[in-house]
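Bug report

Summary: structure tokens for 1-acyl-sn-glycerol-3-phosphate acyltransferase differ between web form and batch submission.
Environment: batch mode, default settings.
Steps: 1) Submit the sequence below via batch. 2) Compare with the web form result.

Sequence submitted:
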Amino acid sequence: MTELPSVRGAEVGRRIGVGLMYGLWKPRVLGAWRVPTTGPVIFAVNHSHAIDGPMVMGVAPRPTHFLIKKEAFVGPLDPFLTGIGQLKVDRDTTDRTAITRALGVLDNGGVLGIFPEGTRGEGDFASLRAGLAYFAVRSGAPIVPVAVLGSSDRPGRLIKGLPPLRSRVDVVFGEPFDAGDGSGRRTRKALDEATGRIQKQLAAHLENARRLTRR
């Protein structure tokens, strides 16, 4: 039986994230009240820079288990990330262990964090992988779009890939929505259709978030 990630560990990770994110930057959190207080939820987060995951983990109103590429689990980070309830995933194969553990998080009423673009990019949700649709349709969990704005490289940064210390980073939570069409189908065609619906919702949220934050 596959061991599920630690819920208590994820809460510890959230508390660590709160201290780090508010200590190093100036997070401005908008729409956190939209996140369902109970039951399974999937955070779909745009991803342009390294602090996006830790930032969401720290400011989200609920502890979050992120699917994180296995390459990040190196040296002392391996036991640390595992200890705070994060999920190691091999992006080069169908990682059934990661899939089972992620579905277990949702079956237990937890929050699963996903970067639907698969890797760091422009952070504009332009290219989505089918994994997000699979987890949403398979579990029935609502998706909450999350836009992280201001984490991109800018003049004044001390470390490449990170925003300048004490600069503002906006995290905007959107309205929850269901990815499925109500039929319960999990065929490739159904997942492709769900991915299309998800992409439109996430792109619209990002546009609204940029308008709201003027970024």
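Above is the batch result. After comparison, the two runs are identical; trailing whitespace caused the diff. The helical segments are 7-24, 52-59, 77-83, 96-107, 131-139, 188-213. The CA atoms of residues 39 and 109 lie 4 Å apart.
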